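The data layer described in this paper is built around a simple, fixed record for each protein. Such a record has a labelled line for the sequence and another for the backbone structure tokens. For reference, a complete record is included directly beneath this paragraph.
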Amino acid sequence: MSKPTSYRNVAGFRCLLNIEKQTSDLYLVHCGQQQCTPGYTYNHKIPNEYHLHFVLNGKGTLKVSQRIYHIKKDDIFLIPKDAHIHYYADMENPWEYMWITFDGEKSVPYLQHAGLSEDNPVIQSTIPNNAYQPMIQKILDANELTFANEIKRVGYLYEILSTLIEVQSSIKAKQNKYDYPSNTYVDYAIQFVKHNYNHIRVQDIAEYIGINRSYLTSIFKKQLGISPQEYLVSFRLKKSAELLINTNLSISEISNSIGYENPLTFSKIFKQTYGMCPKIYRENNL
């Protein structure tokens, strides 16, 4: 027979224990919040559930199967199943944390989506951990034995994990934002330059293909050895060289046609590349 659900609320410690299993998909076992004393040590028996801790303040140390992790404010750490666990608070700045203990068939995939596993039990939250505090406090507030509270507690558990997954997914999205290989983006950028070279900036190229400018610069340098700006200028000057040889357009008209309003600016850039001004280049090639 399982132990009855119990609730404790004393100075520096609040906990709801032995919560009755609600569903096989995901169910809460216990949760709480604790302000640890300096050096407070906890030696876990090999756990049968997953324990997820949200550090609100202070520091501490976690040992998982001979691996050591130094934990700080806004870190989240997992105590996985079937692992030898030992953790303790810092002597000078002891941690305060909240925790949820849960299990169920969905536990592993949910934790994996949040970036947590036995091999990776610690993550740094990109939002302050106190954002999770109201959800855990709602679980603790729903401590009376009622059917409504049983449903509420499961709902808050899902809310905590969905928030965690959403936050971690946004990190992954930023790290792996783009769906296509980098050469595909370079090819699209080159085609865009060919058709629009006379009136665009590098930012326009990045926005057209849907990536940020720094990533565009990175893949251009990696694939072509030059920046997008250098490629754009080079393409414009090649076009101007063709126009100088194959047309009777004036230097000013050619300058405008490739995107330079000031002919003097165009002439200066042209000379830096070809070693002579546009007028001499035309005369020599004619």
